[in-house]
Amino acid sequence: MSNAASEWRIYRTRFLISARQLTESFSLVDALGREHHGEPGDYLVESSDGAQRIAPREIFEDIYVPIGAAGENWPVPDKRALPLEPAAARRTASRRAIMV
């Protein structure tokens, strides 16, 4: 299938999935025996449980947001950028600054 799809990428909505955009017509039968058919531009989608399906391009691109290429290391948040005090304490401090 190397010619049928582009590189795997990670996408998200409420869930993370991997997907490849098809470069030629492609068909598959899922674990439940359902046939899926896709055309160039559609997406081969793989869920975290390994289930695969084909999503039409128009629907896929309207729903999913690309995050990055599959296999890339996910960025680790910089702890220095995270607030160290509770939100309530920050709000109180902000109110005091406004009143001064």
Can you give a write-up of this model?
The protein is built from two helices and seven strands. The protein is an alpha+beta fold and 100 residues long. The chain has one domain (1-72). The strands form two sheets. Strands 6-5-2-1-7 form a five-stranded antiparallel sheet. The chain has a two-stranded antiparallel sheet with strand order 3-4. It starts with 8 loop residues before the first strand and ends with a helix. The model is unreliable at 73-82 (pLDDT under 50).
Strand order of the largest sheet: 6-5-2-1-7
The largest sheet is: 5 strands, antiparallel
The pLDDT mean sits at 76
Helix content: 10-25%
- What is the count of helical runs? 2
What value does the Rg take, in angstroms? 21 Å
Write the layout of secondary structure elements.
Layout (H helix, E strand, L loop, with lengths): L8 E4 L3 E6 L4 E4 L5 E4 L4 E4 L5 E4 L1 H7 L1 E5 L17 H13 L1
Please provide a brief summary of the model.
This protein is an alpha+beta fold and 100 residues long. It has helices at residues 57-63, 87-99; strands at residues 9-12, 16-21, 26-29, 35-38, 43-46, 52-55, 65-69.
Descriptive tags:
elongated; 31% strand; 2 helices; alpha+beta; 100 residues; five-stranded antiparallel sheet
